[in-house]
Specification:
Layout: H1 2-10, E1 18-19, E2 32-39, E3 51-56, E4 62-64, E5 67-68, H2 97-114, H3 124-130, H4 133-142, E6 154-158, H5 164-170, E7 175-179, H6 183-191, E8 195-197, E9 211-217, H7 226-236, E10 237-248, H8 253-258, E11 272-273, H9 276-285, E12 289-290, H10 300-311, H11 325-337, E13 347-353
Parallel strand pairs: 6-7, 6-9, 7-8, 9-10
Antiparallel strand pairs: 1-5, 2-3, 3-4, 4-11, 10-13, 12-13
The protein binds zinc ion (ZN).
Zinc ion (ZN) binds near residues 24, 26, 29, 56 and 59.
């Protein structure tokens, strides 16, 4: 794999397909300092060029400058497995008994906590998961902390991939729609019966007050103009509607540990990386009222393992080497620490509400 990395270093992104970014795309501040230089695509090994990530002195976010233009960014997604084939719907029949029991416990918890009617469900799940916070945090994230909607409530998932999340939420009462720029993933979602539009949020620039919830799961870091994206989210939500965002956390323990080898730098696909406070401020400026921060799912073990693979020059997505024992302990400690201090988790999860009207 070293040779692939070396090839990327010598092959440049087409020069006339780069654009400069003179001020922070999150807050507009122009003062900054370089955070990482000479970064290359060491995750999917398909994007040519080397990249510099700058840290904004205003809000603490980091951003690429220069970066691929919106017209050329597709070059960075040639081998990007967004979201494979057909999404699963419900619980597959052929599951072994113990797996069905696992689903039943999970569903029992979600039904009790969020008011849904997932099936099969066991009432034991609510009691059991209350004793197991790491599993509970993952379960909460599965429904993106959204409560059961009133009849006819509409959910838009921006960057919906193959529609797996939307098919699941449709089964428990949401009217769902997706936005997905990747044609293959969008086709898979449509095959599952989900209404999907190609492109990004700009498609909705003129729309108003259509949705009761809008979700962006690891999407906003790929967007050229995150401020405009948040403004559009605000406009397309109905008063009282919920915005849910998850994005990598630049202030995470993974980034502190691995620095330029951290998985979530992912240049040049990640154009902007937020800290918890920079995302909060951006959401506030777009007009939202922030809600209580949900507990972070424990993902440090995976992020540490893949980052360690990048550091060793291995392919992080194809049988990454096992994490050495010392780093395993550090990853476990990192997850434990986020139990109460979400601001150090590998991802930021934020919920907010359009509160006018
Ligand atoms: Zn900034």
């Amino acid at each position: 794999m070293t040779s692939a990395v070396q090839q990327l270093h010598v092959k440049e992104w087409p020069r006339d397909e780069l654009e400069s970014v003179e001020s922070c795309p999150v807050c507009g501040e122009s003062a900054r300092s370089p955070l990482h230089t000479d970064l290359a695509d060491r995750v999917f090994f398909c994007a040519p060029g080397t990249w510099t990530l700058h840290r904004c002195h205003g809000c603490g976010s980091a951003y690429l400058d220069p970066r691929p233009t919106p017209d050329s960014i597709g070059l960075a997604y040639r081998d990007y497995y967004t979201h494979a084939a057909t999404p699963p719907v419900g619980v597959p029949r052929a599951q072994p008994g113990w797996k069905r029991m696992g689903y039943a416990l999970l569903h029992g918890y979600l039904n009790a906590r969020y008011g849904y009617a997932f099936q099969p469900a066991s009432a034991l799940g609510a009691a059991l998961l209350s004793l197991l916070p790491p599993i509970r945090f993952r379960a909460d994230r599965k429904v993106r902390h959204l409560r059961r909607p009133p009849a006819g409530a509409r959910l838009l998932d921006v960057g919906c991939g193959n529609g797996a999340f939307l098919t699941q939420m449709r089964s428990v009462g949401w009217d769902v729609e997706g936005l997905e720029p990747d044609a293959v993933a969008a086709a898979a979602a449509r095959e599952a019966g989900v209404s999907v539009q190609g492109g990004g949020l700009a498609e909705y620039a003129c729309a108003e007050q259509r949705y009761d919830a809008v979700t962006l799961n690891h999407v906003i870091e790929h967007v050229h103009d995150p401020r405009e994206a948040l403004r559009i989210c605000y406009r397309i939500l109905r008063p009282g509607g919920i915005l849910w965002i998850a994005t990598p956390n630049l202030a995470s323990q993974g980034h502190a540990t691995f620095g330029r080898d951290w998985l979530h730098l992912d240049p040049p696909r990640h154009l902007v990386l937020f800290t918890p406070s920079s995302l909060r401020e951006a959401v506030d400026r777009a007009g939202f009222e922030r809600l209580v921060t949900p507990a972070a799912a424990w993902t440090a073990m995976r992020v540490f393992r893949l980052s360690a693979a990048i550091k060793r020059g291995a392919d992080p997505l194809n049988r990454p080497p096992a994490l050495p024992f010392g780093l395993k302990c550090r990853a476990f400690q990192a997850d434990l620490r986020t139990w109460r201090r979400f601001e150090f988790a590998e991802e930021i999860v934020l919920t907010a509400r359009r509160s006018d009207g």
